[in-house]
Amino acid sequence: MEAIKTEALSKTYLKGLRQQKVLALDNLSLTVNEGEIFGFLGPNGAGKSTTIKLLCDLIRPSSGRAAILEQDVRRPEARRQMGYLPENPNYYAFLTGWELLGFHGTIHGMPQSLIQEHGKRLLEMLELADAAHRPLRTYSKGMVQRLGIAAALIHDPLVLIFDEPMSGLDPVGRKLVADLMLAMRDRGKVVFFSTHILHDVEVICDRIGIITKGKLRFTGTLPDVISESFSSYEVSLRRVSPEQIEALRQKGHNPTSFEDKVKVNVPKGDIVTFLASFMQEGMELISIEPERLSLEDFFMGFVTSATQD
What we know:
Alpha-Beta Plaits; 2 domains; 4-stranded antiparallel beta sheet; 14 strands; about 30% strand
């Protein structure tokens, strides 16, 4: 089942006294399936939070539509199976952690026994059990963030939508939240989260989307990123004569010598021709390695391209 789906979703804001139109989201079409962790990447102002607010029906689109579990997000039935964490959770400071979870559980119509059962489990998983009866004004930013995640999960929703869930977390907190997301996926749930922390994406995501200036630039798996993020191979050779090195240089392969080896750069589309021609000349092939971009470089390529548009 398609857990999250948007079709040509757009949002235009009116800004300033002159009501100037600002296009925050431009024809976003994407699908997230059940049992999937989807990371939504983009720089500040790219349209990530606007997308999430549209999915949660906190704002309405200028055009297009969005659905949760194949139901329009404007229908209350769609939102009952959704857990939402805002980018900057802001709760009543006088409440305790337990009281906040009880408040959220009651809103969702849960019996007290189930609130107690789910709340205890979540507080333990997020290492907040010892602080459960303290007022939130005594919590650190990271503790409030983790409590917000517990509140989003209290009613055991199928679809989890988190806006920058790693914000304000130390490495221990990030590990706790990452492990929780993976556990939710293993239970068949959907996790859709925005972030700009690329390491977290590499560790836990099944698929990613990259958005810049309101436009979706890329969707795919991390293997897809690897496939698209290299354009050449580094080939290591042995038993290469000076004449052959010069021939490689004239062919534009930029040979470099190291001890008894020679390394050359071969464009991805030329690797078969290269091996067919040069390997007949007595050279020994040692290795072929694709020269890949890191996820950061891959991401920054889209950001730079959008800036130049």
